[in-house]
Amino acid sequence: MTTSTLSISTFLLLALFLHSTNAAVFNIQNKCPYTVWAGAVPGGGRRLNPGQTWSLPVAAGTKGARIWPRTNCNFDGSGRGRCQTGDCNGLLQCQNYGTPPNTLAEYALNQYMNRDFFDISLVDGFNVPMVFKPNSGGCTHGISCTADINGQCPGQLRTSGGCNNPCTVYKSDQYCCNSGNCGPTDFSRFFNTRCPDAYSYPKDDPTSTFTCPGGTNYDVIFCP
Known about the structure:
By secondary structure, this protein is an alpha+beta fold. It has helices spanning 3-21, 149-152, 166-170, 173-176, 186-194, and strands spanning 24-30, 36-41, 44-48, 53-58, 65-75, 81-85, 104-108, 115-121, 130-134, 143-145, 158-159, 162-163, 210-213, 218-222. It has a single domain (24-222), classed as Thaumatin (Sandwich). The longest helix is centred in the first third of the chain and has 19 residues, at 3-21. The radius of gyration is 19 Å and the shape is globular.
C-alpha cells in the first residue's frame, strides 16, 4: 500500500468516524430578554444569557432525545439548585427529562431509511416560545410554537411560569392516553389552534412529526 493510498484510507475512516459520532449539531439559541437554562438529554445543560448560543453535538442513532428551556433557575457552585419550570432533579447538568411545564424539542436521529424525526411537543405543557428548524442539507421545513400560550392559558392549566398540559393536572386516561383510546379535547384544541405544528396531546402524530435526511444540523431557538 502506498503512502497516498494510506492517507486516503485514513481520511475516509476519519470522515466515517466523525459522521457516525456527531450525526447532528444542535445550535441552541436564547433570544429571550431573560436568562434561560437549556436542558438536553443527551447533553446535560447550559445557562444561556440573552443572545448566547450553545452548540451541542449529538451522536448518530440517538433517539428518545429532547431539548427544553428551564426558567427562573438558581444553582450553586456544584451545579445543584432548582428551576421554576423544566427542572431536572435540581441539577444544572440534566441526566433525565424535565418537570412540566416545559416546551419540548424532541428528536430521533438516523432512524427509518436514515431519516431524522423531530417535533415540538406541548404534551408536557408550555413555558417558553420555540422554533425548531433544520439549517443544513437542503432540508428547510421548520416548526414553530410562538403564541402567547402563557398569557392565554386556561385557568385550570395555569401555573407559575407556564401553562400545564391537562394530563399533568388531571392525570386521567382522557388526557394522558395511557390506554391508547383518546382523541382531541377542548384543552388540546387550545394548544393546537395556537401552535398547529406542535403535538397537542399524546396521539397527535399525523400532523406533528417532521423528517430530514440523517446528518442534518438544527437550530433550537428560544423566543424567536
